[in-house]
TrEMBL record, chains A, B:
The keyword Transmembrane helix applies. It comes from the Bacteria. This is MtN3 and saliva related transmembrane protein. Keywords: Membrane, Transmembrane, Transmembrane helix. InterPro entries: PQ-loop_rpt (IPR006603), SemiSWEET (IPR047662). It is found in: Membrane. The keyword Transit peptide does not apply.
Amino acid sequence: MTVFGLVAGALTMLSFLPQVLRTARTRSAGDLSWGWLLLFGGGVGMWAVYGIATGDVPVAVTNVITLGLVSVLVVLKVRTREVEV
Amino acid sequence: MTVFGLVAGALTMLSFLPQVLRTARTRSAGDLSWGWLLLFGGGVGMWAVYGIATGDVPVAVTNVITLGLVSVLVVLKVRTREVEV
């Protein structure tokens, strides 16, 4: 089941790459909700802790990386907001 | 740890509510990447199966609901695209 979990984690983790690339390319993040970014980032951070604490490798690894990608989206959202002002 | 996992799951799950509400209100989903939506939806679907198969209640429950919310975003993205055409 760990392999299955790693594939699931890889998909959810890698899914943020096209979103980061799109936002970086278009310099447009208006449609991304702050509520989503912050709540999701907080949840993913907790999932990372949950995975580490329970020794669940797929949950731990994927959520640490996802947290990194979501943080990039937050930075892009802040930066593109400045451009719009 | 299950409570911790449930809180983590609740955050990542509930985080999609503000995104769905924003997209529904603004009728604008251009900044949401198709790559993200489809890969993420696929990954969350697998996480739901992973949670059910391993009896991990937080992972199973939260990912089934998240899958529902992401599906709403996909429908909204399709619908708003028609409006733009």
